[in-house]
Write a structure and sequence with these properties.
By secondary structure, this protein is mainly beta. The strands form 5 sheets. Strands 7, 8, 9, 11 and 12 form a 5-stranded antiparallel beta sheet that branches. A 4-stranded mixed beta sheet has the order 2-1-3-4, sandwiched between helices. A 4-stranded mixed beta sheet has the order 10-6-5-13, with no helix packed on it. A hairpin with an 8-residue loop joins strand 7 and strand 8.
Length: 352
């Protein structure tokens, strides 16, 4: 798990269980089993992944990348557990739910067409259940309340509900790409500890319109480098059916994380982008609606290390250019923290 930068406390609120958006559409789960050291994953597997991302943008499809092994800590315990659920498939492998599509470099075009036909056909089916979550980030932890509503009467089954943290975009090494490859939709963590497939909501017959709710949490308090999990991350909620020890998705949903903030504590009017100048230099483009005196700016890498900082910076209203220097500054994903007497802001950025 990423080490995270401590921020000022945010205001707390109560999650309204009725606010969960339950989708009554059938969603499809596509999974890529991959590894950052795998050259095939970064060559034809990378191109095939990009084709599917393009095909299903805006559709009722969750396409996540499951790193069963990694040199850069992308193989979290949750990712390994999901990967083990596939069996012993090689990498890269592409699955519709748990079914290996046996894609190769020579069959990629044909398999792309078949996957599109499958998704078009089965996403129109009436779902057995709908799921949804409310996920709230308060500056130190993310809490989730997830709900399933069974839409049909089912004679029996063993059903589990889980929520997962997904990193929408992460810049990190990929063999056959570069050290600054853009990894999309990386499966990170379960919100249920070592219960990687969540909690059992019912075993046996279930009536139409029965509902169940479970809570989950990822607590980062006491750690350093806490990025803004309400920006650049998603929550994926999955209803699994367990049969003979294997978990198969029944339905799922993808939703954003809501930030609970106090406007007195957070500089919500500050936006930051960045680009790499080479030679260990990064230029921050900081836009603010108001003048901020005596601000401290820190840049952290994804491992939680401070790689650059500037103290006592004046940020003027409008656009500002701030140059940061450090020997470890390269293209990649970082967290920028701006702190001042009137508040603080933590923003995840991609330096390119």
């Amino acid at each position: 798990m990423k080490r995270l930068l401590a921020l000022a406390l945010f205001a707390f609120t109560t999650i309204n269980v009725n606010a969960q958006e339950i989708s009554e559409d059938q969603w499809i789960l596509i999974q890529k089993k991959t590894a950052d050291w795998c050259s095939l994953c970064g060559s034809w597997g990378w191109n095939f992944k990009n084709d599917l991302l393009e095909d299903f943008e805006g559709e009722n499809v969750v396409f996540w990348m499951v790193h069963f092994s990694s040199n850069n800590d992308l193989d979290t315990p949750t990712a390994k557990a999901i990967s083990n659920n596939f069996g012993s498939a090689p990498q890269p492998s592409f699955f519709i739910e748990n079914d290996n599509q046996n894609v190769t470099s020579g069959t990629a075009a044909e398999k792309r067409d078949l996957i599109n036909i499958f998704v078009e056909t089965f996403s129109g089916n009436p779902p057995q259940a709908g799921v949804g979550s409310v996920a709230v980030f308060d500056g130190e932890k993310i809490t989730t309340t997830s709900r399933v509503k069974f839409l049909q009467e089912l004679a029996g089954g063993d059903y589990w509900l889980a929520s997962y943290l997904v990193d929408d975009e992460l810049i990190s090494f990929q063999a056959a790409q570069s050290s600054s490859a853009v990894h999309e939709n990386i499966l990170m963590h379960s919100f249920h500890g070592t219960n990687y497939f969540g909690e059992n909501v019912i075993t046996g017959a279930v009536a139409a319109n029965e509902e169940f709710t479970i809570d989950g949490e990822l607590d980062f308090s006491g750690q350093t480098n806490i990025p803004d999990y309400s920006d650049g991350y998603s929550i994926v909620t999955v209803l699994w059916a367990r049969v003979a020890g294997e978990y198969t998705p029944v339905n799922l949903n993808r939703q954003p994380i809501t930030a609970i903030v106090s406007t007195n504590d957070v500089l919500s009017n500050v936006d930051i982008s960045a680009f790499h100048l080479g030679a260990g230099q990064v230029n921050l483009n900081i836009t603010s609606d108001e003048k901020i005196n005596n601000a401290n700016i820190s840049l952290f890498n994804i491992n939680g290390q401070t790689v650059a900082s500037q103290q006592h910076v004046q940020i003027n209203s409008g656009e500002n250019q701030i140059l940061l220097e450090g020997q470890d500054l390269t293209i990649g994903t970082y967290v920028v923290v701006v702190e001042s007497a009137i508040g603080s802001r933590s923003i995840k950025i991609s330096v390119r």
